[in-house]
Amino acid sequence: MESLHAKDSIHTLLHTLAYAEDDLDREALLSLFLPNTPFTLDLSSHLASLPPIDSTPQQLWESAYQHLAGFTATQHMLGNILITFEGEGAGGRGAGERDGAWDLGG
């Protein structure tokens, strides 16, 4: 049962991120991360020309806003989400709004 709750939490987090980007909701996006905590942002499966970078939640927000604010609407769609657990870590994959898949690592 614990893994079902964890999978639901991860699923909710991913969809909240998509909604936050589409709604340009800064507070919702920042609430998904520990404040000022760096993380690796790897969009290479989605945008092959971009290498993984170290980022902070605020930098992610600034980049998302810069790239999305000019559109009248955006729709980040996630599908075929598979979340797996192995040992202490979680991993997963799914299909994004482009022809590539994303990978959570694990």
Describe this structure in words.
It is a single chain. This protein is of the alpha+beta class and 106 residues long. The chain has helices at 2-23, 26-30, 57-68; strands spanning 39-41, 53-55, 79-86, 89-95, 101-105. The strands form two sheets. It has a three-stranded antiparallel β-sheet, covered by helices on one side. Strands 1-2 form a two-stranded antiparallel ribbon. β4 and β5 (101-105) form a beta hairpin. The protein is globular, with a radius of gyration of 14 Å. Residues 97-103 have low confidence and may be disordered.
Task: Explain briefly what this protein structure is.
This is SnoaL-like domain-containing protein. Helices cover 37% and strands 25% of the residues. It has a single domain (2-105), classed as Roll (Nuclear Transport Factor 2, Chain: A).
Q: SSE string, helix = H, strand = E?
A: HHEEHEEE
Strand content: 15-25%
**What's the arrangement of strands in the largest beta sheet?**
3-4-5
What oligomeric state do the depicted chains represent? single chain
Secondary structure class reads alpha+beta
The dominant shape is globular
